[in-house]
């Protein structure tokens, strides 16, 4: 089917080449191919994967050519493509992958294609890509001969990896085995993709590649590794994307979108820190890099889902026999990691009042004793100044007068502000005792830094937070580093001692809070020397027994397995899949009925009433059919200008 013929379209009776195009449109009922005629001037330019400009509904819109059929089933005259990119931005296999991802998440193909490829750069398209430099087989072979780490997986293997930190150099990720895995595939002529959660991890991976003699691909000199990072300019990023798509570099490293990177022949795809929330896209249809990588593995590629602390979703793949667990032995753990001590409430009580300071006396003495032997790190869970307060007289939590949320302080001397809505609380008084003084209960990194500077005296203090600036790896050589979990920099040789203050299960994170705490604190502990080198970690705070056990014994996979089994017994994700449907209540009920979902107490589906919609937990065997049915209902509603919002695998919202 095609929109009405516009001026400039071929006359009736002629049979010009035809292109099926996906439109840039947010409307679900327009999420389908439209046929357009390819004008003679673009016959040699338009290919599958070309980005085009086309007339639609009286205006020019963007689109992507997804097929080049011989004929069109549309009975009238076809509108004509107005312009096209000089080279395709997608391969046929990439378009098929986009269609699969869109169906899995109940979204539009255009949205997935938009997330897959960076914006076009005309200068990049004008390059002579046929004669562009291509990485040499010898480069990969030489690098592979230097790599001492064992590859994790080869083509066709699926591995969930509980990693241990690299000893030399000590970095924020276990880069050696990830790069060795990519190299083992690249030497066979296939492509490898390594997905990282942030720019710091990308830099560590590239540093390991350089250590082995591999260079980053550039348009001028070529190279062996294509790097895609949001910090790069548009031309650099799009150039690296095209180079990887055309096979000029067989190893591809990047952040979340690179999980969908088109390559000529994918041999293995690895995702580091697969439990990291940064790997879930913030834009519809919200694909997660772990899921995308697993979908690509179903086509025959090798898969590595790695991290210091695996997620329940990754362990589920192991429990169902779809992947195998690569975990270190207890001897390997003891040799590689620091001694971890979780300070209990009983021990804090034994120290009296000093034990309940944010830095207990015994912990502070351990910090001072460790300083002569190397840098010490102090991790604060929260950024900002003061994140929660209480009445200094009666210790009642300080709450907002308007909405009853907790009050915080943005800076020294400021009036308190509620954390949920930002209501300013001038002239605050405690409703219980009428006291006007506030006690700092949950202090942020900025407030801790003020106190720590006075406590340290002449000892150098480095602060690494979003507000103060994130410090680069290996730039600190002495003193104390104060940081939030994601901003802790690596130091040469590892920290001598690490203290985590006010540790606990993060509030408001929903399902999986305990696993998130384990991941945070083990990720920080991975930057500390091994216990044989004197490395130690002190966790100060209230943590559940399961978290304390996983931290003190360094057994995150066991904790993830226990979490998955508990969720399975309760019918929670990932044992079942979670879908949310928002819109007019009658429309939501009709859409669910159309998808075959019935609200029955004894049925296989659990309903959760939400403020403006419904959440449903569905068996995984039925999930895709239900998603397809909801997408059909969404298209029908869109035709009559009614809005129905569907999200697949989003955050689980439980009634309070």
Secondary-structure-based class equals alpha/beta
Residue share in β-strands = 15-25%
- As residue ranges, the low-confidence spans are 1-14
- Number of contiguous helices: 18
Task: Compile the SSE list and pairings.
Layout: E1 18-23, E2 34-37, E3 51-56, E4 59-67, E5 83-84, H1 92-105, H2 109-116, H3 122-125, H4 137-146, E6 158-162, H5 175-186, E7 191-195, H6 199-211, E8 225-228, H7 234-245, E9 251-254, E10 266-272, H8 289-297, E11 302-307, H9 312-319, E12 324-326, H10 330-336, E13 339-343, H11 345-350, H12 361-370, E14 376-379, E15 386-391, E16 407-408, E17 417-418, E18 438-443, H13 445-456, E19 461-464, E20 480-483, E21 497-503, H14 513-525, E22 536-541, H15 545-553, H16 556-570, E23 576-583, H17 585-594, E24 606-610, E25 613-619, H18 620-639, E26 644-648
Parallel strand pairs: 6-11, 6-12, 7-9, 7-10, 8-9, 10-11, 13-22, 14-20, 14-21, 19-20, 21-22
Antiparallel strand pairs: 1-2, 1-4, 3-4, 3-5, 15-18, 16-17, 23-25, 23-26, 24-25
